[in-house]
Design brief:
2,3-Dihydroxybiphenyl 1,2-Dioxygenase, domain 1; Glyoxalase; Glyas_Bleomycin-R_OHBP_Dase; antibiotic resistance; Bleomycin-R; 4-stranded mixed sheet
Length: 112
Amino acid sequence: MSRPPVQAVPILRVLDVDASLPWWMRLGFAEEFRHVFEPGLPRFVGVARDGCRVYLSEHAGDAPGPALVYLWVPDVDRIAADLGADVEQVPWARECEVTDPDGNRVRVATAT
């Protein structure tokens, strides 16, 4: 029986999933699942892009943050232009840093 590959998934605290999702979609992510224990309780949503996953949680006890996520992508320039961020050349990559609606920072990079 084969085992699945090891995968780490960051969980980010968000105040309103519906406000956060459009921002993450601008980074190329799509909603993968949504879970609510019962109506009126906080939502827990998974977003994914090319095998990379991030969980967005409205639960107050999950990852009180804000957090920092480092995201490798094929074209940082496209994302930076869309989000109005400046791209910087660092020794290992071209990168920019953007902030989601809840103050979580995302460093987006393309290897050089």
